[in-house]
């Protein structure tokens, strides 16, 4: 039973807002990717990405899927640092769990934005790690968050996927 107090309604609107934003990111360019990144050393892997303008429009950002043999598809979202992107460190945030797990970190914890009180948009997070770090949020292994496809059977297989993702990403965005 849903209580009539304001708190549960706020929570409900917040959760709905996060889900709407998750889907907005995925719908952007769903049928047409802006870029497809490859690496000669890893022909069975590629990154499909878009350049969303959601959340923090003041920084460069990329979101999309890292595809492995067309059997695994790992969702990611990258935000440049608000400070000095060329000098600031890169932090890889590996998430796993049910729901849109990257977005819990993005909108509740360390990401550049929070969901506003109405649940229909975002507000800047002044405590975001993106103030002083370039952030890559990666849903892994497959079948967590918005990642999908064949299950990962070992830690080594998951580590290989992440390693190749970083090789392709940094080859294109040094």
Q: What can you see in these coordinates?
A:
It comes from Gigaspora margarita. This is carboxypeptidase C. Keywords: Carboxypeptidase, Glycoprotein, Hydrolase, Protease, Signal. The structure is a single chain. The chain is globular, with a radius of gyration of 17 Å. The chain is α+β, with helices and mostly antiparallel strands and 174 residues long. It starts with 5 loop residues before the first helix and ends with a helix. The mean pLDDT is 81. The protein has one domain (6-172): Alpha/Beta hydrolase fold, catalytic domain (Rossmann fold). The chain has helices at 6-27, 101-109, 155-172; strands at 35-37, 45-50, 61-68, 72-79, 90-95, 113-115, 122-124, 134-139, 148-149. The strands form two sheets. Strands 1, 2, 3, 4, 5, 8 and 9 form a seven-stranded mixed β-sheet that branches. Strands 6-7 form a two-stranded antiparallel ribbon. It has three helices and nine strands. The longest helix is centred in the first third of the chain and has 22 residues, at 6-27.
